[in-house]
Amino acid sequence: QVQLTESGGGLVQPGGSLRLSCSISRLHLDRYDIGWFRQAPGKEREGVSCVTFRGVGYYADTVRGRFTVSRNNVRNTLFLQMNNLEPDDTAVYYCSTNAYGRNFWGRGTQVTVSS
Which of 9, 16, 36, 97 is the most exposed place for a label (fewest CB within 10 A)? Predict the structure, then answer.
């Protein structure tokens, strides 16, 4: 069973930074696209960023220029560097990939941006 485990969330002040990690097991990450999603209280889950198996990154307009996605295929880990965080970035962040014909999700990590 493919497993994804997020970490790195926490409480940060506006303007601060966090680096999220997503560790993937039982899957060769270099063969799949993988992405970050988030869900804020009372809102639907939305896409934040993704990186293709070739290493091309894509970003939502709301985070472009502030967030950077990267992957380490040797460590089978996905990263999201988040800079200049804003209160609207507060959400539970999930990583997800589609493999073997289905979507796999982690349990999420909470990011709270507040002064």
Answer: 16
